[in-house]
Amino acid sequence: MNSKSKFKTLVILDLETSGLVYDEPKITELAIIAVHISTLDEMKSDEELPRVLNKLVKFFDPRKTIRSKATELSNLDNHMLKNYASFNHQTVIAIEHFLNDFQKLLCFVAHNGNRFDFPIFFNEIQTALRTNDSTSINQIDSSLISIACVDSINFFREIYRLISDENILDKKHIDNINASSDLSLSNVVSINRRKYVDIPIKSNLARQLPSMKLLKIYERELNRIPILTYHRAEDDCLMLLAILKRYLPDWLQWIDNNHRLLSDFTFLPSSTTKTTKFLSKKNVNCKRPFKF
Where is the Exonuclease domain (predicted)? Predict the structure, then answer.
C-alpha cells in the first residue's frame, strides 16, 4: 500500500503558542511524531496507534507575554517557561538531525496547519536563522523548509462532505435528482454507500458539516472520549495519528495531490486578510470505499 505513495514517513506536527496567529505568536511547545508509513500499513485494524513512534517534544520561553486565552487552552504560562531557551538556531539543527534518521520523502501533517502551525513554524525557523550569530547561516540552509506539508482539516472537510452527500443519495431515488442540480446523473456512479460518487466541491455548503475540531473528529471516529489531553502538543499529535490511520489508503492518495512545501508559508495570516484555502482539485475522487 505505501509503495503507491511517494512519501515514506509522516511527520505529525503540533504547536502551542503565546497567542493567536494574528498576534505574531511565538512557540511555547512543539511536538513532532515521526512514523514510517509502512509501520501504519502493517498495523491490525483494531490497533489505534503503533508501538514504534519517534517523538521530539520541546518547550520554549516565548520572550513575550502569553495571552490568557492561550494559557487557558495549553495550561502553559510565562512563569512555567522562564528557565527554558527560546526557539533558536540550535532548535532548528536539533529538528533537522531528528528528521534525518527517517526514510525520505517526509511529509509534515498538522491539523489546521495551513492557517496556524505551518506559517508560525516557518516564521520561527526564518527568525532563528536570521538572528544566528554565524554570518554564514541563512534561511536557505535549513532543509526543513523544503519538506512537504499537508493540512488534515482540508482532508476531513472533503471526507465529511462526501459522506454527507452519499447519505443524502441513499435516502433518495435516482429519478428525484433534478437535472439542473449540482449532482447530475452523469456524476453518479452508484448510490450504494460502499460504491463511489464523484461530487463537486461547493464553496458554500447547503448543509452544515460537523465540527472540524480535532477533539470532535477523534470522538466521532473512535466513538469515545480520549484519555489524551486536548491542546497538549504531543497528545494532539497522537489523536491526529490515530484518526488518520483509519483512512490510510485514501489519506496517502490525498496527500500526494494536495501537499505544499513549508517554504510556501512565508507569511502569517492577518486579521484583515482572508487566507486562501489550498485545494488542488475541483472534485473529490474516491478510488475505493472508505473504511468506517
Answer: 9-253
Spatial CB neighbours of 232, under 8 Å, sequence gap ≥ 6? 16, 29, 74, 75
In single-letter form, the type of residue at position 170 comes to D
pTM check: above 0.85: no
Phi, psi angles (nearest 5°) of residue 283: -125, 155
Q: What is the rounded CA–CA span in Å between residue 267 and residue 13?
A: 18
Give the CATH number of domain 2-160+229-278; options: 3.30.420.10, 3.30.450.50, 3.30.70.240, 1.10.1840.10.
Answer: 3.30.420.10
Tracing cell 449532482 back to the chain, one arrives at: 183
Residue listed under C-alpha cell 486578510: 273
Q: What are phi and psi of 31, to 5 degrees?
A: -130, 135
